[in-house]
Amino acid sequence: MRILLIDDEKKLVEALKQLFVENHFAVDLAHDGVEGLELARNDVYDVLIVDVMLPHLSGYELVEILRKEGSSVPILLLTAKDGVDDRVYGLDHGADDYLVKPFATSELLARVRALTRRKGNVVGTEKIGVGDLQLDLVTRQVTCGQTVMQLTAKEFLLLELFLRHEGQVLPKEVLLDRVWGYEALLDTNAVEIYVHFLRKKLLAAKANVATEKATLHIPMIETVRGVGYVLKAL
Q1: Looking at the domain 2-116, which fold is it?
Q2: What pTM does this model have?
Q3: What pLDDT, on the 0 to 100 scale, is given for residue 121?
């Protein structure tokens, strides 16, 4: 899972980055509000952690702008202010949670995990899914109804990313970066090829389980021309 951490306390930021990396998160950093807003707009994150007192653009302003633009990414505000009015102000402007400095790192990790579970597609800490399509992060098994789907490693990663961001348009560049990384330089057509494979397997799985019950809810990947792809629950 990927976090954007926006805070101008560089020592704190580096310490938190190390904490999250050790707990299997990918982390991007920004040290002011403008830089953080630009990253949040142009990439896909599972959680934003935003300090309130930022240079150039406050955390409150950053959150408000993202919400007005339609972003639904979970946001945790960090602040040294512990007054009730401050917490209410942050939550009213679109934040999902609020943590006062100084804090225990174990509590921060717990808050972040809780935010990822609120997104609606998380079945538990080990599974994610949309409708009758479920992905087990421990066994690496994908099921469509009662049918087990056979996916390659890259297809699994691609489907995981779509499920975590169901209903959100994912640009091709983001998919390349998150699934292939440096390997994307070797084959720029990888996204189109693997989306095609994944669509065929989803359709085949849906056909195989059509007799399981009257109505199946299997999400499908749609193309957003000139931008990327989106997984939509049907």
Answers
A1: Rossmann fold (3.40.50)
A2: 0.62
A3: 46
